[in-house]
């Protein structure tokens, strides 16, 4: 029996791909999106189908409103009803100080990481809200410990974008709690994915209390718990998966 359909943005690799595989194994139908890597996204969708669930990969730039509206307006009838959204799509730019950043870099980060999360959340709420005839559901935003730590000297713009995602999480959770929708966030720390510049994990992982970096699968477990009915009384909450840092 299906838990329903979950849309996972940025699902072709890293945390998004791990979440898609874990969600399928847990009984979710999966629609994962990708920006450029069609082959990897198709591979992840195939792995989800091997788990016995419906799964499909579709291209999406979350920063383009028309694309987001089109995606949520054309969800497949053969999958279960929409019951989940994982706002995972995100970008980061090369390490720089604020004094070195230009407007183009900052704008792209905010467009993808903040505007994209808002647009996808908006469309998911419209479909899932019990006030509008939906069956309720859960939204999990993939934030970052950078939102709390600030990432001075490296990624202050990225940290600021994730702090905005935290504010979205808290505000939206309170806004739609009475409409059958829970909204939470996972804040990964140093996770072994392609987002890091070469050598960064080796340099920083020993500084965490646990002395190591985390894995995408460890984050995916947290995301899928927040999606599940096991977290039925949890909303407006932040789950740090950061090794204590």
Automatic annotation (TrEMBL):
It comes from the Bacteria. InterPro entries: KR_dom (IPR057326), NAD(P)-bd_dom_sf (IPR036291), SDR_fam (IPR002347). It holds the Pfam family adh_short_C2. Residues 4-207 form the Ketoreductase domain. Belongs to the short-chain dehydrogenases/reductases (SDR) family. PANTHER family: 3-OXOACYL-[ACYL-CARRIER-PROTEIN] REDUCTASE, CHLOROPLASTIC, SHORT-CHAIN DEHYDROGENASES/REDUCTASES FAMILY MEMBER. This is SDR family oxidoreductase. It comes from Nocardioides vastitatis. The lineage of its organism: Bacteria, Bacillati, Actinomycetota, Actinomycetes, Propionibacteriales.
